[in-house]
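Hi V.,

You were right to ask for the full record rather than a summary. Here it is.
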Amino acid sequence: MDTIVTQNIPNNLTQVIQGMPFKPATMAQGSMFTNARAAFIRQAGGGQSWFQSSDYTKLQTIIATGKSSTNPNGITMSFAGPDQTSVKTAIARCRGGGSVSPKKKGAQRS
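Predicted structure:
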């Protein structure tokens, strides 16, 4: 007899310092996030006291990405939020059913 084993491993959560939980399908594609995170870990971008505006903006992006994704305190971290599509669909089904009036019985003689 074959048994189906279902594992409930919350792979979108991590408590590891500099850990990386799985990203949801709605994350940006490409390596922008990974490169910014790696540059933050390497502490790139230092050494001079002035930057052009585009360099300054890029450095601020690197810092924001690194601070929010490296988990320095080891708290529970996740990139995925609650699935709002399922919630909204269920509410729409409940509210969209409407009410049905009873069938007419015809004229009743008393």
